């Protein structure tokens, strides 16, 4: 199959399958113009994998992902698996795949679209123009550090987790952040808790050292508590926000809320040899199977795949522009407020697919 991009598709649970198939639809539509380009292979992850194989990330899925150029993931989790032992919860599938594929950098853009500025939890004037990128370290820190566990001593139980960062782990994610900033507004804000934590002091020192290789990029440091506040106070002043696994988990949810439209936000998790793309929203079991899910975050995640994994900038931009155009026309899924009657998941996918094809066919459509 030389010449094809192999994409591992892991739909997962809840609305995962519905939104992923719209993303695949858009990629297949692009092939009308590009010619045959992609090969899709599907695998299990999360709750559906637990049901079928008793583990959240079966070996077969790992091998499908290892053979692929990129992974497109839907979402994992749902109430029916909540009572499982911690190592058998659907979320473990996510944590394991990040580690197994070495996906150490997680990109979570939060961009406020003018058409949807009223969705923000903040006043339009404060949030208008917000366009930031959280760069979260994804395979280290307290999420994976040892020792960990719940132990007993002197008749009482205690829980332990360990935050640990090695220099090379900080270095490689910092490089990614600075490289990204180069193609954006050339500003990196590194977030830590260096007034309290040793891992953060090392983080700050290493990030500062890495920054010397990028003299044209402005670097500042914020404590995480202060950053949480500044994100609300002056969201438009942030460009790239670089931070650890745990802080990035928290701040990326906060940043998502700035846009108010979590149904629109994509993410990319990148390693040296592998990459995984997924919508930021979860599995939303309450609306699963009801044709109400917004597929735009999954479709935008496919656009990131085109950009970062396949270097197909023009096609990526066509998909992103198609999303904006369809929204500007007033087309809405039920999660977005609008005047007209909301469309179904697959109708939204159809419209974005058609618009993407139209843009790709237009010789005038060129990346800036
Ligand atoms: C996320 C999620 C995951 C995380 C959970 C589901 C393990 O919150 O991707 O942000 O904490 O990384
Ligand atoms: Mg999270």
Annotation keywords:
368 residues, 10-stranded mixed sheet, binds magnesium ion, Isopropylmalate Dehydrogenase, binds 3-isopropylmalic acid, alpha/beta, two-stranded antiparallel ribbon, 2 domains
Structure in words:
- The chain is built from twelve helices and twelve strands.
- The longest helix is centred in the N-terminal third of the chain and has 19 residues, at 16-34.
- The protein has helices spanning 16-34, 47-53, 59-67, 90-100, 124-127, 167-182, 198-211, 224-233, 245-259, 296-308, 313-328, 345-361; strands at 5-12, 38-42, 70-75, 105-111, 131-137, 145-153, 156-162, 187-192, 218-223, 240-243, 266-270, 275-279.
- The protein has a ten-stranded mixed sheet, with helices on both faces. A two-stranded antiparallel ribbon has the order 6-7.
- It folds into two domains: 1-103 and 271-368, Isopropylmalate Dehydrogenase (3-Layer(aba) Sandwich), CATH 3.40.718.10; 106-264, Isopropylmalate Dehydrogenase.
- The protein is globular, with a radius of gyration of 21 Å.
- 41% of the residues lie in helices and 20% in strands.
- By secondary structure, the protein is α/β, with parallel strands linked by helices.
- The mean pLDDT is 96.
- Bound molecules: 3-isopropylmalic acid and magnesium ion.
- Magnesium ion (MG) binds at residues 249, 253.
